[in-house]
Amino acid sequence: MSDQTMAAGFAAAFLDYAVAEGVPRDSLLAASRLTEDDLADQDTRIPVTSYRTLIATGIEATGDTSLLLRHVLETRLEMISIVGQIVHASTSFPHSLDQLNRYSRLMADVPIPGGRDRFELARDAGAVWLVDHRPSDGSWMATEASFARFISEFRRSAPEHPFEQALEVTYAPPPHANRYPELFRVPVTFRAARNALRINPVWLDEAFDGGKDYVFGIFTRHADALLDELATHDTMRSVVETRMLAGLHEGTLSMDLIARDLGMSRQTLYRRLKDEGATFAQVHDDLRRRMAMDYLSAGKVSVGETAYLLGFSEASAFVRAFRRWTGASPTAWRGD
């Protein structure tokens, strides 16, 4: 969604990495419409679209689609985000995963269907899997980077107990799939039913050396303050959009359902949206429009898949809606 934001620290770190790879700094900033001031404080919020453009520009300039993946594997989360500092001050991997889910919004806005935690530990036939519940749109970039972040942190902090054992991803092999054996170092299953990393079960019980209650408390108090600040900038429209995103693909959204999830009556939700000059139907329709353009401009999913992701029962209904939004069919708008 074009209104989603994220912490500037991630963009600043990628910017530095791409520059080290030979990409002119000015061209990266100009393409992403970011300034040095935007990136000076790692906790400042920037548009997610700017970060995506930054990455796309770096990849285009280097001709290396594995650029983000290599960046993640070679950088440290605690140098980019307060969440990384909290993770490293946790007492164990399960404890750190709880903190990652709790403070995930401080890294980026990523609505998860059904209000679930983004990451979950699941047992399957004696194996332990780290499952990522981020909605799949057929693209590889965000998913591979997320799992690479876990892997890179453990490779540096605890090489004596390899963390990763196998990887399952829903996307097709990316252009740099030939580098996966070198970079991930585990068997990878493409076009799987879920995005999940099989992990070494020793990490369910192994204590972290860095767990310190005092330091952990300092970091979490700061993180809680950041979360509270983010919440003060949330409009009712943005809150409703976040709830909508989590279940958009199901096509069963209703005002009653969203109101219940938000702990208010339908009348209260109606009134609060009206105070902001919006209606529930307008918010839903505009969200679908923006998401459609995001999906189609990325070029990772088909028109039919986009229709499904946006909750349309038939592709034809989506095509009609898209014509109403843009005056063109999805294929014509995308330039197919």
Provide a descriptive summary of the structure in words.
This protein is α+β, with helices and mostly antiparallel strands and 336 residues long. It has helices spanning 8-20, 25-32, 48-62, 67-74, 82-88, 93-102, 141-157, 180-183, 213-232, 236-247, 255-261, 266-275, 280-298, 303-309, 315-326, 330-334, and strands at 5-7, 45-47, 119-124, 127-132, 164-168, 188-189, 196-199. The strands form 2 sheets. It has a 5-stranded mixed beta sheet, covered by helices on one side. β5, α8 and β6 (188-189) form a beta-alpha-beta unit. It is globular. 29% of the residues are buried. It comes from Limimaricola litoreus. One of its GO terms (molecular function) is transcription cis-regulatory region binding.
How is the topology of this model organized?
Layout: E1 5-7, H1 8-20, H2 25-32, E2 45-47, H3 48-62, H4 67-74, H5 82-88, H6 93-102, E3 119-124, E4 127-132, H7 141-157, E5 164-168, H8 180-183, E6 188-189, E7 196-199, H9 213-232, H10 236-247, H11 255-261, H12 266-275, H13 280-298, H14 303-309, H15 315-326, H16 330-334
Parallel strand pairs: 5-6
Antiparallel strand pairs: 1-2, 3-4, 4-7, 5-7
Helix pairs in contact: 1-3, 1-4, 2-3, 4-7, 5-6, 5-9, 10-13, 11-12, 14-15
- Sketch the major β-sheet: 5 strands, mixed
Biggest sheet: strands side by side, in what order? 3-4-7-5-6
Q: Which structural class do you get from the secondary structure elements?
A: alpha+beta
Indicate the percent of residues in helices. Answer: 40-55%
Shape: globular
Strand content: 5-15%
Gyration radius from CA atoms, angstroms: 21 Å
Distance between the termini: 23 Å
Mean pLDDT: 89
**Can you write the helix and strand succession as a string?**
EHHEHHHHEEHEHEEHHHHHHHH
Instruction: List the total number of helices.
Output: 16
